[in-house]
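Sanity check

After download, print the first record. It should look like this:
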Amino acid sequence: MLNKTPLTPSDPKTESFVLGCLMIDGNNTAWDRVASLLTPECFYKQTHRWIYEAMLSLVQRGLNIDVLAVVEQLKTDGHLNQSFGPAQVMEVTYDVTTTTYLPQHATTLVAYKMRRDILSVCYQTISSYSKGHVDPMSLLDEMQESLSSVLPNVATGTDLGTYAKQSIENLERIQSGNAPYLPTPWESVDNAAGCFIYPSDLIIIAARPGMGKTSFVCDLMRHISKQGHPCGFFSLEMSGVQVFERLVAAEVGIQSSDIRTGQLNDHDLQLYYEGIDKMHGLPIFIDDRGGLTIQEIAMQANTFVKQHGVKIIIIDHLQFVNRGNLNEYAGISAITQASKELAKTLDVPVILVSQLNRKVEDRTGSRPELQDLRGSGTIEQDADFIGFLYRAEYYKIYEDEDGYPTRGKAEFITAKNRHKAPSTAMLNWNGDNVTFSDPGDQIFDDSAMWSQAEAPTSFTDKMNAAKQLQQANGRTIINELPDDLPF
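Expected C-alpha cells:
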C-alpha cells in the first residue's frame, strides 16, 4: 500500500547555514557567489524561505544584506510574529564561522529542491493514474513535461544546419581578421601549436617546479590583455600584489625580486614606474584567495565573464585547488571535469596550470611525457590541449643532442592537441625577469649557407661560425663564450 503522504527531503541545518553566510557577509559578495543557483523554493522551511525572499528584495533594491535590514524587510512583508521575530532571524548566523564552503552547501539545497520536485511529479502521476481510464501515453507525456520543468537544463538537441551556420560564421570571422582564438605572444608557439587558445577548450600547461609555468601564463595574460581581451586570473599560490609585480617586471625588463626587496637603482626605479603606468589599466582581474574549491572558482569566473566580459580564465594552479575530502586522483578528476564544463558553459578558454610527477626526473634528460601528469588519466581525457614547458639547463644539461647550447632556451612541447598534431616550439628564457620570448634568429639556422665541406663540426667552431654569420648580417647576438660551459 503506497503512503499517500508526500516525502519532503530537506535539510534545515544547511538552509540555516546558507542564510547565515549570506547575512554576515555585509557587502553581498557571498550573495553573488550563489545567486545564480538559489531560488526561494530551495528553502523548504517556511521561515527560511521568508528570510531568503527578504534578502532577494534587498538585493533587487540595490541594498546590502545584514541582520537589521532583513528584519526590517520581514516586518514590511508582514512575516514577523510572536514565534518568529528578530531573535529567530539572528539564530541563523550563530553557527557560521566561514563562508568558504557556501557554494557546496547551496548546491546541496538545489539537490534537495530537485528531489522534492521529482517526488511531487511522481505523486501527481500516481494521483492521475488512480482515477482510472487514463491513456498511458498521455500520462507519460504529462510526466515528461513536468520533469522537464524540474530539469530546465535538459537539451533538446541541435540540428546540423545550426552548426553549419556557426562554422561559416567562424570562418568569415577568421578571414576578416576577427579570429575566435586568442593569439599568444610567441609566433613560434602559434606556428607549432596552431593558435591553440579556443573558446570552450580546457588547456593544461604543465611542468616541474622552476620551469616557469606561472611566468608563461603571466606573459600570455599580459599579451592577451594588451589586445583588449579581459582576463580572469585565479592565483591560488601567489598574492595579487606578487602577480602584479611580476607583470610589471616582465613588461619593462627588470627583476621582480628587486621590486620585492626594494633594491632598484635610479634607472630601474624609473622603469618600475613606467611599468606601473602601462600595466595598471589593463583589463586583468585577479582573485588571489587561497583554498578555493572548483565550485567557488566557477562562481567567480561566471561573475568575471558577466561583469567584466572576461575572454579567458587562468587557474594557477591545479594542485592548490581545494578538493575537500577527496583523494588526489578523485579530486583532480573532479576539478578537471568541472573546469571543462566551465569552459563550455562560459564559452571561454580555461587554462589550468599543473605540476608534473617527480618521476619525470628519474628519466634520462627529464623530458616530460603525458604519463608524468599527476592524475594523468583524467587530465588527458578532459583536456583539449596539453602543453609542457621544459628547460634542459635546469637539469644541468648545457647541450642538446645535436651539440647546440641550451642555456636560456626553453621548449614548449605540445603533447595533446585536438586541433593539430603534437609539436615542439623553441623559446628563449630570461631568468632575470622570468619571461619567455620568441627565439628570433637561431644561432645555427644559417647552416644552409655553408657547403658540406665547410660546415663547422665542433661546438667551438659552431660558435665562431655563428659569430661570423651574425657579423656578416650586421647583428651581434653572442659576444663571447660563457666561462662555465662544460668543456
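If your output differs, re-run the checksum step. Summary of this record's structure: The radius of gyration is 29 Å.
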